[in-house]
Amino acid sequence: MAALIHVAVGVLTNASGRVLIARRGADLHQGGLWEFPGGKVEPGEDVRQALTRELLEELGIRVEASEPLLTVEHDYGDRRVALDTHRVSHWQGEPRGQEGQPLAWVLPSGLDDYEFPEANLAIVERLQQT
Question: Does the reported pTM lie above 0.70?
Fold first, then answer.
């Protein structure tokens, strides 16, 4: 069985209720699909530290406030992930694709128009319920 990859995921919501999604690079696992930004929790980091580091690296923003939203475990067959998802309510800076990845601000009701990795579908569902 593949080792579990612990991932810190951020759901950023702007003043108009839209959430930020990013498209994965074609060369990555699940490449070309849309996702909520974040990345692996490194040894010695807690989830908040990882989320802060990843969103600074990926989006160029500094997280000021976040709270747990849900945790999703998913087995893709070739890898298993645990998405420790936090709702980011306050940040400093304007999110930009620091790695050249396209970004989109989308109303939760419009997320069905984008293709996500299976592990992200529970996050989409939760956002559409609130």
Answer: yes
